[in-house]
Design goal:
The chain contains 11 helices and 9 strands. The relative contact order is 0.11. The termini are far apart. The protein folds into 2 domains: 99 residues, Rossmann fold; 139 residues, Heat shock protein 90, C-terminal domain (Four Helix Bundle (Hemerythrin (Met), subunit A)). Strand 1 and strand 2 form a beta hairpin. Helix 1 runs parallel beside helix 6 and helix 10 packs across helix 11. The protein is α/β, with parallel strands linked by helices.
Length: 250
């Protein structure tokens, strides 16, 4: 009932929020309050980070978590259906904005790390601009943008919502309540340091019209869906592309 109160009782929101307990990336067994989180934020950290999903197991394996884990930032795991509505209402706590790790772009770390990351991303985007454009054209009806990722360290791809978009989980909740929801395409981010993306770039450099570029793009999109626990829209197509890719690799 506390979470529902945060949604509907705006006059008591701050007091109710202080009573909430959450699972966290920094505590595999216990629960923490928002006050606990704020009290152990990293020096210079200004925001409270969270991820929503079906279970802690799914969120622990989420590609969205990678850069936060690498840089030592704690992320709250929200797995109750009502959490989606709650965080839309709870925009800040004790002056710290509450922000989804699955939205927007990230610029984490100290000033030197951020500067280095920006320069590296600018150079890589310039080098891979043609590939990104080609992948975008091939997936034009499924994603609204293809860009390089600042949040991935080990995964090849991830799907990201825009800063002000409704999350996929909340869309499913609203559709389940018979609410009309317009189609909302997300952003596909690629990890330029992943071997698959590096090989894809080399193939594009050798032959920009290679049919395998589009097929690999479809597999990367499907892998991003699977990683977040979502269904692949066309399982038969995915199975055929995966079988072909495995056959070429053996």
């Amino acid at each position: 009932m506390l979470k529902e109160g945060v949604v509907v009782a705006s006059e008591h929101r701050d007091r109710l929020a202080d009573l909430l307990l959450f699972s966290s990336s920094a505590d595999p067994e216990g629960l923490i309050s928002l006050s606990d989180y704020v009290g152990r934020m990293k020096p210079g950290q200004k925001e409270i980070f969270y991820l929503t999903g079906e279970s802690r197991r799914v969120l622990e394996g989420s590609p969205h978590l990678e850069v936060f884990s690498e840089r030592g930032y704690e992320v709250l795991f929200l797995t109750d259906p009502v959490d989606e509505l709650m965080v839309e209402a709870l925009t800040e706590f004790e002056g710290a904005p509450v922000r989804s790790a699955a939205r927007g772009e990230w610029d984490l770390g100290d000033e030197a790390q951020r500067d280095e990351a920006r320069k590296d991303m600018e150079n890589r985007t310039s080098e891979l601009g043609g590939l990104l454009e080609t992948v975008q054209k091939h997936l034009a009806d499924r994603v609204r943008e293809v860009r390089l990722s600042t949040r991935l360290t080990t995964s090849p791809a991830v799907l990201v919502a825009g800063e002000h978009d409704i999350s996929p989980q909340l869309q499913r909740i609203l559709r389940g309540s018979q609410m009309e929801m317009p189609a909302q395409l997300r952003i596909l981010e690629l990890n330029p340091k992943h071997p698959v993306v590096e090989k894809l770039a080399a193939r594009f450099e050798a032959d920009a019209g290679d049919v395998l570029i589009g097929e690999t793009a479809e597999l990367l999109l499907a892998s991003a869906l699977v990683a977040e626990g979502a269904a692949v829209p066309d399982p038969a197509r995915f199975n055929a592309l995966l079988a072909d890719a495995l056959g070429r690799g053996l």
